[in-house]
Amino acid sequence: MRPAIKISRLLGGCAVAAVALTITAAARADHHAGTHTAMTDKTAAAPLIPREDLFGNPTRSSGQLSPDGQWLSWLAPKDGVMNVWIAPANDPSTARPMTGSTDRPIRQYFWAGDSKSLMYIQDKGGDENFLLYGIDLATGKETTLTPFEKTRVQVVGTSFAKPDKMLVGVNNRDARFHDVHLLDLSTGELSLVMENNSFAGFLADDELNLRMALRPNASGGMDFFPISDGQVAAEPSDSTALADSLTTQPAGFTNDGKTLYWIDSRGRNTAALIAQDTATGEKRLIAENDKADIGGAMSDPKTGELEAYSFTYLTTEWTATDPDVKASLEFLDSKLDGEFGVQSRTKADDKWIVWNDPLTSPSKTYLYDRTAGTLNEFYTTRPELVGAPLQPMHTLEITSRDGLTLPSYLTLPPGSDSNADGVPDAPVPMVMLVHGGPWARDGFGFNSYHQWLANRGYAVMSVNFRGSTGFGKEFISAGDLEWGKKMHDDLIDATDWAVKQGITPEDKVAIMGGSYGGYATLAGLAFTPEEFACGVDIVGPSNLETLLKTIPPYWEPLIAQFHERMGNPNTPEGLAMLKERSPLYSADKITKPLLIGQGANDPRVNQAESDQIVAAMKEKGIPVTYVLYPDEGHGFAKPSNNIAFSAITENFLATCLGGRAEPIGDTVKESTAKIVEGADFVQGLEDALGG
């Protein structure tokens, strides 16, 4: 149940590394003599993948084993809404639903350490006030374990030593800080462990003793305070400044509490894996990589000792430190194509659930019996995609104008690349798909947006621009105070590279993304109005000043880092810079078509962020299409809403770039979408709304 090392991609893919794609001018010349963009006959003949197959409910997902190995669980639709199902491990055919959500899909759940109950978190309408719910396996009774309003729960610690209890953080007293409570899963009783008036987080051991408190400091970094017998030390034992704040963190204790693992970039560029003796304080280097931060780890469920670790530069590579785990990973590698990883393990570690991404066919999940040496298919996540023309993803290394290497990914339309080397036979329209965060990253593997847009006739490029995580602190810090400037220059440089390589014509590139990617879309159209043919902004901020004023209260402890990396609105210089970098104030420069999607309940990027720029564009008579979802937050959780916005988007892009599109049909009517502005700017949208 409880991984000892709690870091991103904890049980992520063990992959065969791909070779970075480098395209030369000579290769480009061999592909085509002209620069026409007519869709190839092969692309036009490829089956159109239905939106429902990519963005509707999966058949099954998130498979898990109960810690005792007696039960299988997964997420699957019940009356059209994703719910938790279970079945005996020895008889999966007798599955039954354990939850009864009728509106929003359940997206995250986990087992209690004693295998007697399941828990899940759920919010209301996308407000991100996640509460914790529990279901007793024996009776089927469901209980709201954190029965509070306007509260966001955090899981602080789970345990095999005390499998019927866990530590949770609850911010119902002060929305900025999470007080730590001990939750008795048998009775539902919450007991206060520590009132919190300044800390951003806590670390607990397997005995559910709080061992460390984390507090942001004035420099934008973090201070780490030891906790002994419930008392927080007066002085921190470790600290970071801004440069290491996103690449250094304690990652968890071994089950005996004698070793603390760290992800640590102090004194180096990329984050290494470090083991610290808690008695002596001595630290030992386990692994480091000169191109990528430590990305994932596997630890023994019984001891918490490290067994394997991974780094992800362009693709993910695992190294096992435990001989038995090494043998298991080698066995899986011999049986599975593409990427794979371990997503669930029993406490005895005799059975694993393994996900497999074959890259050009739908993902599958397997049951691996390590004792018997058998690997049996559990489910295919989206069986309707079997036989669909899914396209390979190419890895790229693009050089920015100032010499940074930008790890990137490219997917091409079906039939467009007869030599299968990542250069189309003739240039094709392209979508620059920008990730959110911005302190996040794009990765290798099946991507529903890449597959969807490529199927519609577009090259799709995703760029890890400066500020993206995973590539060392220097790469992150290169993005400090560069919103709308050098971070945006990286996207322009990648677009120009694609034009020079013959991947796309310069006048047929759209920019699209969510959250920061939405900001990048607005910035692209406002700051470089001739660069992109059109843009799709999903929950992107238009005004950085109001964005910082309206962040959720539980983000306030981290505000110093926002100010240091984005700009400080409390200084004249910082405020002036934030206004300069806000697309709202350059809305009058937008000349190309823009589509905006927004959730009315978004706690991160408030509805006002989209309202403001739409109003500014209307005032200047600039066309804009604005789609508002009254029951969504930061992104669209409900499949009907996601499908509706995808329908509008692909018809918007077809209007702008000339690609293929399924008709909108009844998708908008079947969603909660409100077309606030600009239905006439998207082909077929007015007709879809009428009648």
TrEMBL record:
Record-annotated Peptidase S9 prolyl oligopeptidase catalytic domain positions: 446-659
Signal peptide residues on this chain, from the entry's feature table: 1-29
GO MF, any single term: serine-type endopeptidase activity
Highest taxon listed in the record's lineage: Bacteria
Keyword Hydrolase applies: yes
Keyword vocabulary terms for this entry: Hydrolase, Signal
GO biological process: proteolysis
InterPro entries: 6-blade_b-propeller_TolB-like (IPR011042), AB_hydrolase_fold (IPR029058), Peptidase_S9_cat (IPR001375), Peptidase_S9A (IPR002470)
PANTHER family named in the record: DIPEPTIDYL PEPTIDASE FAMILY MEMBER 6, SERINE PEPTIDASE S9 FAMILY MEMBER
Protein name: Prolyl oligopeptidase family serine peptidase
Organism: Allopontixanthobacter sediminis
Classification lineage: Bacteria, Pseudomonadati, Pseudomonadota, Alphaproteobacteria, Sphingomonadales
